[in-house]
Design a protein that fits this description.
Layout (H helix, E strand, L loop, with lengths): L2 H10 L16 H6 L26 E4 L8 E8 L4 E4 L4 E6 L8 E6 L2 E2 L3 E5 L4 E3 L1 E5 L5 E5 L5 E2 L24 H5 L10 H9 L14
Antiparallel strand pairs: 1-2, 1-7, 2-3, 3-6, 4-5, 7-8, 9-10, 10-11
């Protein structure tokens, strides 16, 4: 699917005030099946967390503090801020059948279930132990996460895009356009049409004139 089509789909979505968010995006078929028009689901109370106070990002390594996988560490692969959820790779899994029917046994798969943000803690890279963090500013004015136990900065994770590119590690190749060439002004505005500009560039002289016409 083209990015423009995806953005246009997201722009047309009108989310009701009492909409119950889940792990599916609101415009997907699965989300519409769980939230059909006219159906009012039970309200879920979510602890409000400001966007600037959210400390766990996709790609972070965290430790589970409660539940069946308590004490295990894993990588955050998804973040759902509307529900204060995170999903860890390979942890807090539950098993279910998909494509199950009368003539088909289906496929038994394992899928990760979301975990509340308060049930995980960031890992301090200095000692690989969970730590409480706080947002602070460096002398250069950069906003960073700092471990309250050791005082060490916890760097933001390097996330790989869908096309396999890591923006922070990208190096321009011989066929890439440099920023200087991108910002170079090469277009000169003109009131001439495209055809007139092409004729002027090629040195074509047009001597023909339109016939006179009358409206009556």
């Amino acid at each position: 699917m083209r990015l423009t089509a995806l953005l246009s789909m997201a722009a047309r979505v009108v989310i009701p005030k009492d909409y119950r968010f889940g792990t599916n995006r609101p415009w997907t078929t699965a989300a519409k099946r769980l939230n059909p028009p006219g159906k009012k689901r039970r309200k879920v109370f979510v602890e409000p967390i400001a966007a600037e106070d959210w400390s766990v990002l996709r790609g972070d390594t965290v430790e589970i503090l409660a539940g069946k996988d308590k004490g295990k560490q894993g990588k955050v692969i998804q973040v759902f801020r509307h529900r204060n959820w995170v999903i860890l790779e390979g942890l807090n899994t539950h098993y279910r059948y998909i494509a199950k029917g009368a003539d088909n046994r289906g496929t038994y798969i394992a899928s990760e279930a979301p975990i509340l943000l308060r049930d995980v803690a960031l890992i301090d890279p200095s000692d690989r132990k969970p730590a409480d963090v706080q947002w602070k500013f460096t002398e250069e004015g950069e906003r960073v996460r700092v471990s309250l136990r050791t005082g060490r900065i916890i760097p933001k994770p390097v996330v790989q895009r869908r096309d396999g590119i890591v923006p922070e590690q990208w190096k321009d190749g011989p066929k890439d356009t440099s920023p200087e060439d991108t910002l170079t002004k090469t277009y000169v505005p003109s009131l001439k049409t495209l055809e007139e500009e092409v004729m002027e560039t090629l040195g074509i002289q047009e001597n023909r004139r339109h016939k006179r016409s009358y409206w009556y």
